[in-house]
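Hi support team,

I submitted a single chain yesterday and got back a structure, but I'm not sure I'm reading the token output correctly. Could someone confirm the output below corresponds to the sequence I sent? I've pasted both exactly as they appear in my results page.

Thanks,
R.
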Amino acid sequence: MILDGKKLASHIKIDLKNQIEELKSHIAFVPKLATILVGEDEASQVYVNMKIKACKDIGMGSIFVKMPANTTTKELMAKIDELNKQKDVCGILLQHPTPKHIDEDVCFNKILISKDVDGTNTASYGKIAMGQKAFAPATPLGIMMLLNHYNINVQSKHALVIGRSQILGKPVASLLLNADATVTIAHSKTRNLDELLKQADIVVACVGIAHFIKAKKLKKGVVIIDAGYNRGNIGDVDLTGVENIASYYTPVPGGVGPMTIVALLTQTVEAVKKLI
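Hi R., thanks for writing in. Yes, this is the structure output for that exact sequence:
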């Protein structure tokens, strides 16, 4: 069965729109999500535009802050601090990646934890890792929302996460662990990857290499979550023959991608609720 993130995201947006309408009756302003883009990365600009449109779709405001590529870490931190102080800004998103000279971690940590709706603050991740409540990175949260919607029980299942980034691989492993899955983290340099692939009940591919994993190497009945997105709309999993192998799988595009945006919106709405 295809895990249709696009369809689920559409349903969730309807619910979020209704929630925003209700929340507006309790606050004296239109809640906004602020997105900061540093530089001219074309893919990032596309993502930002999608997020702005998604905000509009649910009746929430948005602020787009575009800063030149030569922006310094100090200047970026000053802008984040300015947004931290704006009452109508309920969520702040710093678009990744930033130019290499930017100290990205320092800037992520400058975002107030109460407005860190993309879950990039170190404190947010620490709380997630400790099983405490916090805003999670949007893509891992979107993956969990997708699994929950399709009633895929991860308890006691062997989940193999292939990828170790701080905004995807590591936090999705923590969320799965918190849901009582048995989790193994692998990556592009893991030596016995083929052996691990044959054991896994759930595979989350987020290594960032097109068709790095072959579906034919996975065990029968596996759940495939492809969180990779490479040039040409290609995922990290080669789905050739997947219909004879997997019980569930996410398409690329249309699987994890739409859930990332709707997870971001969901957490922004949660941030608005905390103001009441």
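A quick pointer for reading it: The chain has two domains: 27-113, 138-257. Let us know if anything else looks off.

Best,
Support desk
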